[in-house]
Amino acid sequence: MRAFGMHDQAADAAGTDGDLRTLFGQSTALFATFTGPAHAVDTADPAFLSAFGDDGADLSGLLDEVYRTSEPRARRDVRVVLGSGPDAREAFFDLTCEPRRDASGDLLGVRVVGVETTQVKHAQRLTAEHRALLEQIARQAPLSEVLDGMARSIEELAAEELFVSVLLAEPDGLHLRHGAAPSLPDFYNEAIDGIATGEGVGSCGTAAHRREPVIVTDIATDPFWDDFRGLAQQAGLGSCWSTPVLARDGSLLGTFAMYHRTARVPQDTDFALIRVFAGTAALAIERHHNEVARQAAEAQAESARAALAEAVRAERELRAEAEQRAEAAAQLTAQMRVAAAVQAKTPHPEFCQLGGRAGCTLPAEIKVADSWGDSAWGCAAHVEEILIHVRSVFIASEELGGLAAYLNR
């Protein structure tokens, strides 16, 4: 990851400030004057006519009050709907109404001065939503919760209907997985979960591949959507603007996309909103990756500690077992020596003593003993048989060189 120095911080701050100015840096002022108790419009600028019409009928109550009392009045957050149909939008104004007088001081009518506060309200909402997201990231809330909340915030802040989607890059950067898309249909999210990154793979796959924004204004005609056009039509989507979400070292974290139901060209305010929240998504995803890496490192360290403890325990057990075996071997050797000493004094019989009840008339050639001190003389055949079947038996004939001499005869 590249160093994030003062120059980078200043550049990022300047970029953020520029995006906020684009989003909220302009306010519409309006002005109108009315004459007489009937409030006939004397003068009105285009902004006033657009908001309140050519007669100001929506303000009649306020105008009546000012004209009747000859005292100024102020109203905040006066709501109006600008435009109609798909282009309609909600707007808010702060208005100041004051009486108009002639040179003699006689009341002529009412003057209205106002400023649109829609952008201010939106800025306040965006700031509050953005602060809440940063607080979630700081307290390490689950990534899915942060991304879902971010998507919903953008959808609510937008002036027109849109749908937000965040896809997360797999570690190899070759595929994108579902991150958040609260307003897109489930079938659509399931279909694009795991799409490859590559040239011409929709808006998001291409943006991830190019590491730059991809703006598809009309899904119905754009070749990038040839493989997904039917899916988009089924979901009722007309345009898709996708921006790669990149880490500070330039590696791919995912994509951030805005969908609209109709073909649509983004405005400067759209790009500004995308940049603001793409940066927030990058912060959330990087913080998540760091946390996952930290937990994995801790788990690996704990596993290593457990393995070391197990190795120490096993080594202690092996050492104790070896000590027990050495002690047992020493005891057995002592018993063998005692048995050999005892048997050395026993007369050598003429015939084999290992034939059992049937007896054996073969010469007694080899002396055997066990660890308890019992011994006998036997022929070669019976001695071999007892050595195979009785583990505690050994050749005690020292003059024959012991078992080795017998096996190598």
Automatic annotation (TrEMBL):
This is GAF domain-containing protein. The keyword Coiled coil applies. Keywords: Coiled coil. Residues 129-295 form the GAF domain. SUPFAM superfamilies: GAF domain-like. It comes from Lentzea flaviverrucosa. It comes from the Bacteria. Residues 294-332 form a coiled coil. InterPro entries: GAF (IPR003018), GAF-like_dom_sf (IPR029016).
